Amino acid sequence: MKLSIAIAVLMLVFAAHTEAQEAEKTIEEHFTTFSNQMKDLSEDLTVKTKDIVEKIGDSEFITKTRTWFTEQFDKMKAKIDETFPKQ
After folding, report:
1. Nearest to residue 74, comparing CAs of 64, 82, 85, 86?
2. What is the distance of C-alpha 48 from the center of its chain?
3. How far is 43 from 37, CA to CA, in rounded Å?
4. Mind listing the pLDDT tens digit for each residue in 35-57?
5. pTM flag (> 0.85)
6. What SS3 class is residue 86?
């Protein structure tokens, strides 16, 4: 009787130990998981950043500002050429 109880207890301990070993991840698996998460995060941030930059570049304010600076620069170049003509 005692022997059969001892064998049953040992089998339960062995089964619990085996399941515990299967459930634990190795360091390599942890690094792989972490690497995949970082890759997904960086890809997501890249896409979001590109979208924001495109929206900013296409905005009416930026377009008008760029045009204004171009006009001012052209006026300044013309004034310099007029003041200091090339010989």
Report:
1. 82
2. 9
3. 10
4. 999 999 999 999 999 999 888 88
5. no
6. coil
